[in-house]
């Protein structure tokens, strides 16, 4: 699990000045970072992959695996001089150049004596559905070119469109038309999955009103709007619970953030059981309120980084589940079972509208070797209980909170 949690941005032109975000990633125990570039090609649309060199070296020295993001937005077309999105051939060249240089075993790794390390996920064009100014066909051709260019170097590398925002912000499952525009690339496997940005908000996306406001709901609606028959993977390079309105209190937001983390990590495919979440990056672990405002800043201070309550929740999740994998899901009861070398973990989203049986008690299935369980909430370890294998009843729980039950191996 720790290899699927990360943050960002690791901006290429700020290499050497990213102490805060690296402290934050280490502080919560995350293993990945979104590395983005605004200078990855010239005005003539010739790729300049060496723009990433210094940032890649910094990431390697910091023990963080990068996901590469090539930044482009519709407003670039109105700059002086304008920067059009470019053709399929332009993006093929960019994908090929980036993959050739930065994949594990690529040119950059060999030059730096670290041939077994590099990026395996390549993304481009962040939130195209916000401005919605890029022609849909041009957007499709750009991503097709990127995917084909990357896969011409190594077909096992993953290509994903930059995150979408408008299912979350406007309830638009078509993503303002950009989803259906790339449906064929998802159907044939050139694109590995869909990246959704989810900002839970007490007014605009209130998870407290049930699973209608879950990322799973958006993911399922988007796939339906695309008409996909193939199972695709789920990515989240931005998510958070906004400290605003009724959720402005730090502890209220932290309590709900635990539910949000498991909403992102436990997304399933079309069979309703198989996990398809590849990664989940909260926004923004490194920012303080003076940088990102109170709503999304997850640092209490910087130099050194000090975690805000939501960051502490994420740290707890990774301490418990960092070396685990999800082995069973029950969407109806909102129960997820994870297994690891030292313990199992059972997660329960005890929020009305998420589980069919909300309340102050839950019955869970414990493994044959179970002798005790630990009850963990958003605020840490709450108690230890002697237990026995099989069906086990845990009571004394709070309503409308997500819980994690850790079952240590004897």
Question: Which SSEs are present, and which pair or pack?
Answer:
Blueprint: E1 6-11, H1 19-28, E2 32-37, H2 53-62, E3 65-70, H3 88-102, H4 107-111, E4 121-124, H5 128-131, H6 136-153, E5 158-161, H7 166-170, H8 178-181, H9 183-187, E6 193-200, H10 215-226, E7 233-241, H11 250-265, E8 277-280, H12 289-296, E9 299-301, E10 306-307, H13 309-321, E11 325-330, E12 335-339, E13 343-350, E14 362-366, E15 372-377, E16 380-386, E17 390-394, E18 401-408
InterPro entries: GH
Protein name: Asl1-like glycosyl hydrolase catalytic domain-containing protein
Organism: Bradyrhizobium ontarionense
Quick tags:
single chain; 410 residues; alpha/beta; TIM Barrel; Immunoglobulin-like; 2 domains; 30% helix; 25% strand; globular
Biggest sheet statistics: 6 strands, antiparallel
The portion of residues forming beta strands comes to 15-25%
Helix percentage range: 25-40%
What low-confidence regions span 5 or more consecutive residues with pLDDT below 50?
none
Organism: Bradyrhizobium ontarionense
Protein name: Asl1-like glycosyl hydrolase catalytic domain-containing protein
Describe this structure in words.
This is Asl1-like glycosyl hydrolase catalytic domain-containing protein. InterPro entries: GH. With 410 residues, the chain is α/β, with parallel strands linked by helices. It folds into 2 domains: 2-322, Glycosidases (TIM Barrel); 335-408, Sandwich (Immunoglobulin-like), CATH 2.60.40. It contains 13 helices and 18 strands. It has a 6-stranded antiparallel beta sheet. The chain has a 5-stranded parallel beta sheet with strand order 1-2-3-4-5, with helices on one face. The longest helix is centred in the middle third of the chain and has 18 residues, at 136-153. The radius of gyration is 21 Å and the shape is globular.
């Amino acid at each position: 699990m720790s290899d699927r949690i990360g943050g960002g941005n690791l901006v290429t032109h700020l290499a050497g000045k990213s102490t805060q975000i690296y402290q934050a990633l280490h502080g919560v125990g995350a293993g990945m970072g979104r590395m983005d570039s605004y200078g990855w090609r010239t005005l003539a649309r010739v790729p300049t992959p060496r723009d990433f060199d210094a940032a890649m070296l910094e990431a390697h020295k910091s023990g963080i695996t990068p996901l590469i993001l090539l930044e482009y937005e519709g407003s670039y077309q109105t700059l002086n001089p304008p920067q059009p999105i470019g053709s399929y051939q332009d993006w093929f060249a960019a994908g090929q150049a980036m993959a050739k240089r930065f994949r594990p075993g690529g040119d950059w790794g060999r030059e730096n004596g670290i041939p077994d390390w590099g990026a395996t996920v390549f993304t481009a064009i962040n939130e195209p559905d916000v401005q919605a100014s890029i022609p849909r066909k041009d957007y499709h051709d750009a991503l097709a070119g990127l995917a084909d260019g990357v896969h011409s170097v190594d077909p096992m590398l993953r290509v994903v469109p930059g995150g979408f925002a408008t299912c979350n912000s406007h309830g638009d499952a078509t993503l303002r038309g950009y989803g259906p525009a790339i449906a064929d690339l998802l159907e044939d496997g050139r694109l590995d999955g869909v990246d959704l940005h989810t900002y839970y908000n007490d007014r605009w996306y209130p998870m407290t009103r049930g699973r209608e406001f879950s990322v799973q709901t958006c993911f399922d609606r988007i796939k339906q709007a695309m008409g996909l028959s193939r199972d695709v993977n789920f990515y989240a390079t931005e998510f958070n619970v906004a400290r605003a309105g009724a959720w402005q209190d730090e502890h209220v937001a932290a309590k709900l953030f635990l539910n949000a983390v498991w909403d992102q990590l436990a997304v399933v495919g079309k069979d309703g059981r198989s996990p398809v979440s590849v990664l989940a990056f909260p926004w923004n672990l490194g920012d303080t309120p003076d940088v990102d405002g109170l709503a999304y800043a997850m640092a209490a201070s910087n130099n050194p980084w000090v975690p805000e309550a939501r960051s502490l929740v994420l740290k707890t999740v990774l301490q418990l589940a960092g070396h685990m994998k999800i082995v069973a899901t029950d969407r109806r009861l909102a129960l997820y079972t994870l297994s690891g070398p030292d313990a199992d973990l059972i997660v329960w989203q005890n929020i009305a509208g998420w589980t069919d049986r909300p309340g102050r008690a839950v019955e869970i299935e414990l493994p044959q070797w179970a002798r005790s369980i630990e009850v963990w909430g958003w605020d840490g370890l709450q108690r230890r209980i002697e237990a026995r294998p099989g069906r086990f009843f845990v009571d004394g729980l709070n309503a409308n909170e997500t819980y994690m039950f850790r079952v240590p191996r004897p």
